[in-house]
Amino acid sequence: MTATALLTDGSLVTVRELGPGDVTALLQLHRSLPLEDQYLRFFSTSPRQLEDFVERMVSPEEPRHVVIGAMRGDRLLGAASYVVVGESDGAEVALVVSHAEQTHGVGTLLLEHLVSLARGRGIRRFTAEVLAINFRMLRVFTDMGLVWTVVADGDVVHVDLGLDPCERYLEAVAEREQVAEAASLSHVLRPGSIAVVGASRSPDSVGHAVLRNLVEGAFTGDLYAVNPHAKSVANVDCYASVTELPEAPELAVVCVPAKAVPRVADECGRRGVRALVVISSGVNPAELLRIVRTHGMRLVGPNCLGVSTSSPAVRMNATFSAHSTLAGDIGLVTQSGGIAIAVQEELRRLGLGLSNLVSTGDKLDISSNDLLMWWGQDPQTRMIALYLESFGNPRKFARLAREIAAHKPVLAIRAASSEAGQRAAASHTASTATPSVTRDALFRQAGVIAVDGVPELVDVVMALSWQPVPGGRSVAVLSNAGGLGVLAADACVREGLHLAELSGETLKSLRELLPAAASVQNPIDTTAAVDEQTFARCLDLVGADPAVDAVITVTVPTALGDPTTGVHRVDGTPVLAVRTGQTERLADEVPCYAEPARAAAALARLAERAEWLGRPREFADLGGIDLATAEEIVRRQGDGWLPPDEVVRLLKAFSLPVLGGTLVTTAEHAVAAQRAYDAPVALKAVADDLLHKSKGGGVVLGISDEAGVAEAFRGFRERFGDRLRGVFVQPMAAGGRELLVGVATDEKFGPLLVTGLGGVDTDLIDDRAAALAPLSTTDADALVHGFRSAGRVLADVDAQAVRDVLLRVAELAAALPEVVELDINPLVVTDTGCLVVDARVRVARPHRTDPFLRQLRTP
């Protein structure tokens, strides 16, 4: 294993497994320890046979010994090791860190990587013996966040660490990562000095534009230009190369031709530059990343617009945008420079500004996950907007976004939503799991507000910036133009909102206030004769009605006046205005939209956020799970579909309500099975390449006599020949509503659960809902009610039974990464509960990754 990761001071180290070639470095590390550190590590100030000990640690002939180290260049900063104890799944752990590096998080980083490595190799527990006076080591174990126990025994403390990645552990890892990322990204977003490399004298060049924007924006730090053919550009003195600069700039913005980028990047690294923004496109990505990692730099780009920070303490516009960024509280990250400019210009027109703009381009290094960690702790950023064309680590993204969205709105423009990326799949579930379905499930569960373009993004940002979220989905429409009010009402219904039933008191007050020709029923038509004061009074009345969660006003100017000027804020109730043809901010910070549909869509996104904020994220404590049996089943099975009897065993290990059956290979055994059930049976062929049994003629239902069973068996033998591996005999299930429940596992996103109409309806009606595991109880409830016909086909008692099935299937998928596809179809729902009538499970050796491990991308 080899990884690059950040320490708490923002510097980079390489974490890798050590071998025989590292003996000298390990000896130097141990011998450099002060006497006190040697005593705490070895319980002695003069450890005996240190050479033998170190050689044994890294010897390939000692497979029970595993050692990893943190390297900066050729220097070993620290090492963590474990030794497997006996034949158990436990190991004794040890840690040593250079005295000079003991405050930079080297120890916890090494232990995190050692824990991940050990879990992947079947280790479930670490033990250690620590001197009671070794407070630093005990603090390291405490800070890890793992479930641990300690037993004091005189001067020694016995420590026992469970390695399962519990929630507390993941939170602790995330906190450490956020500290390290903030220190690292400060070189990009709050640099004290910048050099623009490739600052051309030509006004229409990118390098000139970047330098000019930095000068005109009054960057607060030291600014340098690198151009060997000019003495100055934009009144900034030029230097022939980075090596000739009077100091090492904290950030270098590289605008040279692609072929020159690696050389310039290497010069920057040797000079001591901490971060690069590479504007140039067409760069060799592997070569650039290798250079960046070698010198411990961070990188934005290549092929990007640049970065900006509007804080008065920085005032950095290191982009080639035509206009400067207004100071504001929105953090914007996009892979597309064009999207960045479009969003920036729209926000600028409305008087909204950005705290930071980061165009990641090809995102070789810094990505949206890095920026989420920065903005999560940045007090100047109140809202986050994203444009993502791909996910590097979607599971980490989901965790970060969920945590941040609880305090700051996170919005994302959906991209690449077509079905062109759909992969071929054998199961109904896998064929449903297109990239867009998976991405939308991630956004929905993480509380990310998903929109479909720049205009919708700006519409929602306007509403979030100036209005509170609604307490519900009841809307009042107030208009001086009846037809437009009807359009607004229709738009609300299309967006899942509903029109509020106004109270009798509100209706009475409106009648007293408005002309006789007015309609006071929602949508309210004040008529064109009302003035702005009357309209404002109507808004106060409607906004104060307890049944109203939000108000949409729709106004047009007439010869009698313009009631738009009467639209104002209402305490506690969001107000969104519509004025045909205009998108703007009204005087009292009320967002105004060009048409009713846009206002309704923005309000619906606010309602979704309010509902997400109000949902508890709790996980059910499921009982009756025999994980050991389940692991044994998938471990014994090679890649492919499990036999039906093994599927039954696997599902029963998670206490799923399985109908069961008997797998037979002869007609006589099939007859015996039917006789044992003493009831009508179904026969299902188990044959090579027969996945959809009903379509392939592999199912015969309702056989009630022995002759019928024998005949059905012979029919399968004639139809499938040598492909027939057996026949599964099941008792007939009672009738009920048939559902589909399934899992498709994506290497990056993890398991996706799908549910919807099952049985024959599966192929006829595309009505399904999806969510990513792990499932909270709220996620499961949303999934149960998420497909369109759920309210029609499931009663409350049915929903509870289906919910339990979904939670158990999600637990199975999360616990067994070997299960890459699972189809339960049908799941029969009756008055007494659920029954799994038929199921298929495909197993494959997983490519094990740890999505929450602290590591950066490597070449």
UniProtKB/TrEMBL annotation:
Pfam families: Acetyltransf_1, ATP-grasp_5, CoA_binding_2, Ligase_CoA_2, Succ_CoA_lig. The keyword Oxidoreductase does not apply. Residues 13-166 form the N-acetyltransferase domain. It comes from the Bacteria. The keyword Heme does not apply. Keywords: ATP-binding, Ligase, Nucleotide-binding. This is Acyl-CoA synthetase. It comes from Lentzea flava. The lineage of its organism: Bacteria, Bacillati, Actinomycetota, Actinomycetes, Pseudonocardiales.
